[in-house]
Design goal:
Blueprint: E1 2-6, E2 13-20, E3 26-33, H1 36-41, E4 47-49, E5 52-54, E6 68-70, E7 77-79, E8 84-86, E9 89-93, E10 100-102, E11 109-111
Parallel strand pairs: 1-7, 3-5
Antiparallel strand pairs: 1-2, 2-3, 4-11, 6-7, 8-9, 9-10
Bound molecules: zinc ion (ZN) (2 copies).
């Protein structure tokens, strides 16, 4: 399944390809650009649950960030390209809703994201 994420640097939507990791969880394998026309159509709802990890090949297709996070405020996925170091940890902001804060926790389930497949 592909989930829609936003590049925090370029503010462009892109898809994260999730593949089963063989242990009941999901591994982000690749990041792919989404054509503008496809973005305008909107996405059908989907959900994933289990553990989430990031594969060695995964990169944001816009800024090449090798990680992503889920916003605790709006639930949107963002690339980590906009993260900065603050107070000894990573400080992130969400390109979907503008929320910002320290990163914490891990993704348990993803909901409301489009399955492009
Ligand atoms: Zn990015
Ligand atoms: Zn957000």
């Amino acid at each position: 399944m592909i989930s829609v994420a936003m590049c925090a640097v370029e503010r462009q939507q892109f898809g994260i390809n999730f593949a089963p990791d063989g242990q009941g969880g999901w591994c982000a394998s690749t990041g792919v650009r989404i054509p503008t026309e496809r973005q305008a159509q909107g996405y059908s709802p989907g959900s994933l649950s289990g553990g989430f990890s990031v594969g060695p090949e995964y990169r944001c297709p816009y800024c090449a960030s090798d990680n992503f996070f889920q916003c605790g405020a709006c639930g949107g996925l963002d690339c980590m390209g906009g993260a900065i170091q603050r107070n000894g940890g990573q400080w992130i902001w969400c390109a979907w809703c503008g929320s910002e804060g320290p990163i914490h926790g891990s993704i348990q389930n993803l909901q409301g994201f489009g399955d492009l497949g």
